[in-house]
Design goal:
alpha+beta; 7 helices
Length: about 260
């Protein structure tokens, strides 16, 4: 591990206060450069498929990544620092349930302020529960003010959304933009009110998401199709993390069952 147990505890405290933490320079850039090269043809195919109906807003595309090749990297999804923080805020034996990406192109716009999930118990009118689903994000390029930085709010992961939106509109809740170097890792609670911003450059800005859930949570719109050859190579920890995902013949790994088009809550 790169960090000590005491540092993991501190990250967890910051996460619970703000809804997120960032681990700087955590993944080697050369590794993510390989991801970028493997990602490009998948992205081009998705754009060709969805160009008339982009699935995340104007010129913004969600691409499911296959759990094989460079994308099935235990040094990333089993990273002990990341998992230590995940377990501190979302409980033991988490489930890895999502491997995908969000990429805005030139012509993209501000998304509406939104959360990525509804409250766990919406009938109560409250969102004040411990974390139950996290997104681990890292970019396949440097992210600056011009190419679509993530914009979010601190502390709204445990607030009623209507109150959070009113606070933003009234200027009482600050907006934070996160410029990230390729290699930085953000761990965030998907309930926090946030939005994507425009990419004003000529280059795509791919942002990977690994989704981790509490051990008892299942969201049917997301999953990872694990090819049999990848499953056979998994470590005991990998099998534990992926235990609720479908294992499929290798030739079916790209036949994604995800229907994750409704993403804003």
């Amino acid at each position: 591990m790169r960090y000590t147990a005491a540092e993991h505890d501190a990250f967890a405290r910051d996460f619970n206060r703000d809804s997120l933490v960032v681990l700087k320079n955590h993944i080697p850039r050369e590794k993510l450069a390989r991801w970028r090269r493997a990602f490009q043809p998948l992205f081009e195919a998705q754009v060709a498929k969805d160009k008339d109906d982009p699935n995340r807003g104007a010129q913004r595309f969600y691409v499911t990544l296959p759990f094989q090749g460079v994308f099935a990297d235990p040094e990333i999804y089993e990273d002990r620092d990341i998992l230590s923080i995940v377990e501190r805020v979302a409980g033991p034996e988490p489930v890895l349930c999502q491997l995908a990406s969000d990429t805005p192109l030139k012509g993209s716009d501000y998304q509406p302020w939104h959360a990525d999930t509804p409250p766990l118990f919406p009938e109560t009118g409250s969102n004040d529960t411990p974390s139950f689903q996290l997104a681990v994000n890292f970019a396949l390029c440097d992210v600056n003010d011009d190419n679509g930085p993530f914009e979010t709010t601190h502390g709204t992961h445990r607030m009623n959304k209507a109150e959070a939106l009113k606070g933003i509109a009234d200027g009482l809740i600050a907006q934070h933009r996160y410029k990230m170097q390729m290699g930085d890792v953000m761990i965030r609670d998907v309930r926090a009110v946030h939005r994507g911003t425009p990419n004003k450059t000529d280059e795509p800005r791919p942002m990977v998401v690994l989704g981790y859930s509490r051990r008892w949570l299942h969201r049917p719109e997301v999953n990872i199709r694990v090819p049999q050859s990848s499953w056979d190579k998994l470590s005991p920890l990998g099998r534990q993390l992926l235990r609720y995902n479908p294992v499929v013949p290798d030739e079916q790994v790209l036949a994604s069952g995800e229907s994750y088009r409704v993403f804003a809550y």
